[in-house]
Amino acid sequence: MAHLLIVEDDELLRDGLSAQLKQAGYLIDTADDGEAALDYLHKQAFDGVLLDLGLPKIDGLEVLQRLRQTLPALPVLILTARDGVEDRIAGLNGGADDYLTKPFNGDELLARLQAMLRRASLPAFGTRTSTIHPPAHAGGALRVDPSMPRAWLGEVAIELTQREWELLALLVRCEGQVVSREAVLAAWQSDAGEGGALASNALEVYVHRLRRKLADSRLNIRNIRGLGYMLETARP
Fold first, then answer.
1. Are 143 and 45 contacting, i.e. CB atoms less than 8 angstroms apart?
2. What letter does residue 125 receive in the DSSP assignment?
3. Where are residues bearing 4-aspartylphosphate located in the sequence (predicted)?
């Protein structure tokens, strides 16, 4: 079930969209201004956003630009009364995936939304962040960008080397499962950058570094003797 955020200041339209999309099987959260939208996006993971441009507090285009800094591949469908060509260009250049002007047909909205989410799930669009949600008091969600060495704990960026990011991304993809030392070393050896193959004992150094960088969360890299490593949420 896809989780969507509707950002719309018109209460009647917002409630109507929410009801329609819930009926279509989506999980919905709503925000009535740009500030609330950014707060939602910092705290939760979404599969897509329906974004109005004419928002109070923070304009929709600024919301789009700011979310693109940390969520570069989150699917965004703009819904707006601004129907000029220059407005559509500004929205698409700002990072929107699609653009629908008000008033719009409900069936067309569903079709465009489904197409946008379907495109985002294809391998060519594989830059969406992987997310793990530890308890709320544990520093926020861990988000890892699978296309470049970037990760965040809540709103705070984690500084990672290429090797650390590769290890963390692999552990996140296999959360709750044991990742063997051989699997990590094979992934590293397939990368021509940063020195190529590494000695097995160097892996412990990177695991130690990652543990320190995750210290502000309750996420832990557990050493499973004789098998490998597993990313898990530590007990309180």
1. yes
2. G
3. 52
Residue 75 has a pLDDT of 87
- Alpha-carbon distances of 89 from 51, 86, 116, 157, rounded to whole Å: 15, 5, 18, 31
- Residue limits of CATH 3.40.50.2300 in the chain: 3-125
Reported as a single tens digit per residue, the pLDDT across 25-80 is 999 999 999 999 999 988 888 889 999 999 999 999 999 999 888 787 788 999 98
Q: What SS3 class is residue 137?
A: helix
Q: Provide the terminal-to-terminal Cα distance of the chain, rounded to the nearest Å.
A: 30
**Confidence (pTM):** 0.54
What is the CATH architecture assignment of 130-233?
Orthogonal Bundle (1.10)
**Phi, psi dihedrals of residue 233, rounded to the nearest 5°:** -90, 120
- C-beta neighbour count of 87 within 10 angstroms: 17
Amino acid (1-letter code) at residue 48: G
Q: Is residue 155 scored above 80 in pLDDT? A: no
- CATH 1.10.10.10 domain span(s) along the chain: 130-233
Note the CATH architecture for domain 3-125.
Answer: 3-Layer(aba) Sandwich (3.40)
β-strands 76-80, 48-51: how paired?
parallel
Q: Which two tokens stand for residue 190?
A: 């397939």
Beta bridge partners of 219: 233
Name the E strands within 69-184.
76-80, 98-101, 130-132, 142-145, 150-153, 156-158, 179-180
Residue 35, classed as helix, strand or coil, is helix
Mean pLDDT of 82-110: 83
Q: Cα(170)–Cα(174) distance, rounded to whole angstroms?
A: 6
